[in-house]
Amino acid sequence: MSILIYAESAEGKFKKVALELASYAKKVAETMNTTVTAVTVNIADVSELASYGVDKVLKVTNEQLKSFNAKAYADVVKQAAQKEGTKLVVLSSTTDSLYLAPILSVGLDAGYASNVVALPESTNPFVVKRTAFSNKAFNHTEINSEVKVIAIGKNSFGLVEANGAAVTEDFSPSLNNADFTLTVESVEKTTGKVTIADADIVVSAGRGLKGPENWGMIEELATVLGAATACSKPVSDLDWRPHEEHVGQTGKPVAANLYIAVGISGAIQHIAGINASKVKVVINSDPEAPFFKVADYGVVGDAFEIVPKLIEKLKEFKAKNA
Question: 95: domain CATH number?
Answer without folding.
Answer: 3.40.50.620
